[in-house]
C-alpha cells in the first residue's frame, strides 16, 4: 500500500513501528560514510603494480626528456597519445594536467574569468555573468562558479540529458550566459548518459555569447557497470561538424581508474583553444608530474588495456549498486515514497524522496551514524528547490556496511515520509 | 689591461683576435643549454630509491587515511610535520601542495586577486595595484604578476638584500602596493642571502595596504654550496614579534631536492591565513598527491636526513659553480668588463656585463650554439634598464660541456664589450 493512501491511524502505526526500528539502529552506534564517490580499498589495490614500472630504471619519455626533470608543460608525448583516446581528441587537442580534473576545471574557469577565452574580454569584465547548471549535478562544479561570483541557472535533467529546449532558448537570448557544466556520461548523480540527439544539440548550440564554453566533464567515460555499455557521441567531433569546435572544453581523469589521490587529469579542446590555453598555463606552472604520466602509460600500455582494467572495478562495485537498488525496490517502491536511478555506470544512485523530505532523511541518517552527501548539495548554492534529492555513493563501504547503511537509509526515508504526510 | 684603457688600435686588434676565436667556436656546431636552473642527471639519480618506499605495501598515513584515495586537502599530518621544519613554521601554519611551488604562488596571487586576503577587498577591485620586484629577480615571479595586470616596480638589490629604505618608504605611502616577491636565501639570480637586519625590517614593515603580502619564496633554503652555510632569520618568527604575522606567505619545494618534475611544494603562513586560504583551496581541488607526500616522508624520515642528502647535491654541483667563477676570474676580471656573484648556494651565477651588452652577449652565444636565459628575463616585463644582467645556470650541463660553454661565454663577453667600446 502506498503511504499516501494510508489512513491517519495506519500512518501513525507505520510511523511508530518505523521509529522503533530507527531507535534500534541508533543504539548500534554505527559510523559509516557514504558521502563521497570514493573507490574502496579493493579498487585501490588494482593499480598498485603501477608503482613498479620504473624498476627498469628508464625515466626517459619517447622524445628524450627525463620525466624526473622540469619541462613539457602540456605533458609527455606518450601521455598525450594515450589519453587522447580516453577523451576522444587528437594529440594536438589535449593538455595533461596534475592529479585533479577539478583543478583543471577551476583553472580553465579562472583563466576565462581573468583573461577571457581566445583573446576575448575577461569574463570578470563582462558584468554579471551566468552558467547553466543541469540539476541535480556535481556540487564541486557549482562551488567553482560560485567562487567566481558567476550566477547559476538550474536546468532540469531529463532521461536523455539536460532540457535542451530550455538551454537552446537561454543561450540564444542571453550573451551573459558564458558556460554550462555537463557530466555527459553517467551524470553525477543521476547516472544519465546524454542521448545522441542531446550531444548533437549541444554541439550545434547557437549562443549569443561568442565566448560560451561547454564544460564537458567526462569523469565516467569508461566507468561502466554493465557488460554492454553504450558509448556517447564524441562531442568534439560533432562540434567540428557544426563549426563549433572552439565551444567545448572536455575533462577527464584516472582518479577512479588508478588512484583518486594520485591519478592523471586531462583536458581536451580544439587546437586553437589548446594553443591559447597553454600560454596561460605556462604562467602558473613549469610542468605537471611527468613521472606519474609515464607511470600510467607504462602500466596500461594501451587504451584497450585500461578499458579491460575497468572491468575489474566493475566486478567490485556493480554488486554494491545492486544492493542499493534492490533495497530501494524492496522497501521503498511498494510505499510510493521515492524514485531513483539504476545507473549503468558512474559512481552514484540519485534518490528523489517526497518533496520536502531530503534534509530530514539526511539528518536522520546522520544522527544514527551514517553520513550522506548533504541534502541540497546536488544543486547550485546548496538549495534543492523541492528538497528531495539525495546522492547515494555506494562504492566505498564494504558490502556488509553498505547493506547496513541501506537498511538504515530506507528506515529514514519511511520515517521522514510518514512525518511529512502526518503533518499535512 | 682593462679593455676601457686600450687605445683604439689595441681594441681593434683585441676584437679581431676574439672574433677569430668566436668563429672557430661557431664552426664546432655546439648545442648546449644553460637557460634554466635544472638539476643534472646525477642529481636526479640521488632520489631514485624514493620510488621503492611503497614496496612494503603500506599506504596509510599516520591518521589512518589511505594516501591513494581522496581527502586531506592540506596534506597528510606527517608531511606537514616534515616540511614545517624546512620552511620554519608549525604544523598548523603549512599547506602541502602538488609538485610546483610556482603553482602555489600563482594560486595565492589568484586567490588574493579574485577573493581578497582575510576577507578584504579582492585585489581585482582595488583599482590599479602594484608589486615590488627586487631586481634582478626570478622571471616566473614577474610573469605571474604581469598575468594579473599588476604593475611592477623595480627595487635594486644590495649585498644584504633588496633596498629596504626604498621598500619601507614605498609601502608606507602607497596602499596600492599589495605585495613583494622575495627569494631570501641565495636569491635568484644573485645568490644573495638577506641579512638579519633585512629580514627584521621586512618583518616590521608598516604598510599602507592592510592586505600587503610578502611572497617569501624560500626556494633554496637548504641548497648550500659551502660546508658552513649561514642560515637566514625565520621571517614568520620575526613577523610575529612585530605583530605582522599575517603579512608573510612562505613557499618552498623539493624540486631541487628530489625531482623537479615530481617533488612536493609547500606554503607556510600564519594560522589565520592558512585557515582562510584552505577555504579557497578546497574549491579548486579535493587533495594533492598524497602518495608523493608520503613517498618523500618515508624516503627521508627526518629533516636532518634531507639536509644530509643536500650535501650529495652540493658535491655534484659545487664544482660546476667553481668552473663558472674561475673562468670569469681568469678571463673577465683582468679586462674590467663584467662583475658577477660567487654564490654560497642556490642555482645561479648572476653576471653583469658592461651596460648595453647583455642582449648582444646572449645573441652571440646563441648563434654559436649555447642557449642562455634571455637577456632581460631577470627584470619585470623582460626589460633590463641597463641591459647588462645575464643569469648563468651551471647545474645541468656535464662538466666538459660547461667548460666549453663558459669558454664561449667569455669570448662573447669580450667580443660584445669590444664592439661596445669601439662604437662609443
Describe the structure.
The structure is a homodimer of 424-residue chains. The first copy, chain A, is α/β, with parallel strands linked by helices. Chain A folds into two domains: 3-43 and 307-423, Aspartate Aminotransferase, domain 1, CATH 3.90.1150.10; 61-301, Type I PLP-dependent aspartate aminotransferase-like (Major domain) (Aspartate Aminotransferase, domain 2, 3-Layer(aba) Sandwich), CATH 3.40.640. Helix content of chain A is 41%, strand content 14%. The first copy, chain A, is built from 13 helices and 13 strands. Chain A has helices at 8-26, 41-45, 77-87, 101-115, 139-147, 164-173, 196-203, 235-241, 271-284, 290-300, 303-331, 358-367, 399-423; strands spanning 32-34, 94-96, 130-135, 151-158, 161-162, 177-182, 213-217, 248-253, 265-268, 338-340, 349-353, 370-372, 389-392. In chain A, the strands form three sheets. Chain A has an eight-stranded mixed beta sheet, sandwiched between helices. A three-stranded antiparallel beta sheet of chain A has the order 10-11-13, covered by helices on one side. In chain A, helix 7 links the parallel strand 6 (177-182) and strand 7. In chain A, helix 4 packs parallel to helix 5 (139-147) and helix 11 crosses helix 13. The longest helix of chain A is centred in the C-terminal third of the chain and has 29 residues, at 303-331. The first copy, chain A, is globular and about 75 Å long. At the A-B interface, helix 4, helix 5, helix 9 and helix 10 of A face helix 4, helix 5, helix 9 and helix 10 of B.
